Amino acid sequence: MPKIMIVDDSSFIRNHYSKVLADHGYEIVVAQNGEQAIELYRTARPDVVLMDIVMPRMDGISALNRIRALDPAAKVIVLTAMDQKSATTRAIQAGAKDFMLKPVLPSQLLIKLERLLKRT
């Protein structure tokens, strides 16, 4: 069963995506900021990370850089709002495998995850 880490400062988003993905057979781990994501990545070693860009304590791009330093093969999908185009570009340059604009439809999220996991 693939393990997905959801990193978002919004508890609503974490809970919503957790339920959707768990209902489709994924194992879920969650973090509420970039610092937690790095620590959890070390222990949980998820197959894919869904990472919000704008978060307190440590933003998603900084966390992405640190995770990729730990694991250059890390698969990260960044989640971003419409007005964060430059941040999305920086995330892709930092090694994110893909990005999705919020609000993310569950069907789109499932398709992206399946495609990314099949590239393994």
End-to-end Cα distance, whole Å, is 14 Å
Order of helices and strands: EHEHEHEHEH
**SS-derived structural category:** alpha/beta
The side-by-side strand order for the widest beta sheet comes to 2-1-3-4-5
Helix content: 40-55%
Largest sheet: 5 strands, parallel
**Which parts are unreliable, with pLDDT below 50 for 5 consecutive residues or more?**
none
The backbone outline, from C-alpha atoms, is globular
Please report which band the strand proportion falls in: under 5%, 5-15%, 15-25%, 25-35%, 35-45% or over 45%.
15-25%
Q: What is the C-alpha radius of gyration, as a whole number of Å?
A: 13 Å
Number of strands: 5
Number of helices: 5
- Report mean pLDDT, rounded to a whole number: 93
Brief summary of the model shown:
This protein has 120 residues and is an alpha/beta fold. The chain is built from five helices and five strands, in the order βαβαβαβαβα.
Structural account:
This protein has 120 residues and is an alpha/beta fold. The protein has helices at residues 11-23, 34-44, 60-70, 85-93, 106-118; strands spanning 3-7, 27-31, 48-52, 76-80, 98-101. Strand 4 (76-80), helix 4 and strand 5 (98-101) form a beta-alpha-beta unit. The longest helix is centred in the first third of the chain and has 13 residues, at 11-23.
